[in-house]
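Thread: Isochorismatase-like domain-containing protein, structure

OP (GT): Posting the sequence first so everyone is looking at the same thing. Length is 194 residues per the record. Can we get the structure tokens written out before standup tomorrow? I want them in the notebook alongside the other entries.
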Amino acid sequence: MPALMIVQMQQDFVSPDGSACVAGALPSVSVIATALHHARRQGWLVIHVHRQPPERPTQPKPQSHRPTACIETSWGASPVPELQPKADEMVIHKPRGSAFERTELASHLSDHPNKELVICGTPLPTCLRSTVIDALQRNHPVTLLSDGCSARSDALIDANLQEMAQRGVRCISVNDWLEWLGHDARAEQGKSVH
């Protein structure tokens, strides 16, 4: 049974009022909500990965002009309402790009070696890409929900999806993924009848 991983679908990245809004993140919410509904209905492990920046010095670095996103307990750090974690779902707080870097995710997944991870969220060229690569290095098969990912431009999305596919990642839309799961489930049922 796969696990669904939702990365950084927090107000600062999704809302137009967020400090680090990613183009395309808001329209992907309904797509990701569809995948989340399916995963919950199937009893899958659901992993919510939230950005939580490390403690910062009181004086910002002179070269840093970007506002800090997802400051702990702020509105911007909260997940969008449609993708709010349930009490029994895993929430990983990450300080860096990959969901595996300086988090307990790998130890949680150690009980599930080679578990397929179905990944979606934002932004694709950085946090999703590094999470996918780290998952592959840990021998987890990965499905990337292509319309559940966002970036600053369609060109960035296309280039990253092409790279991921070349690495052996299944890149598929949510509707095609649900259809594929249905065919796969029917094939399994057919095998058990014979």
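GT: Both are above now. Quick notes for whoever picks this up: The two ends are 22 Å apart (CA to CA). Residues 81 and 137 are 32 Å apart (CA to CA).
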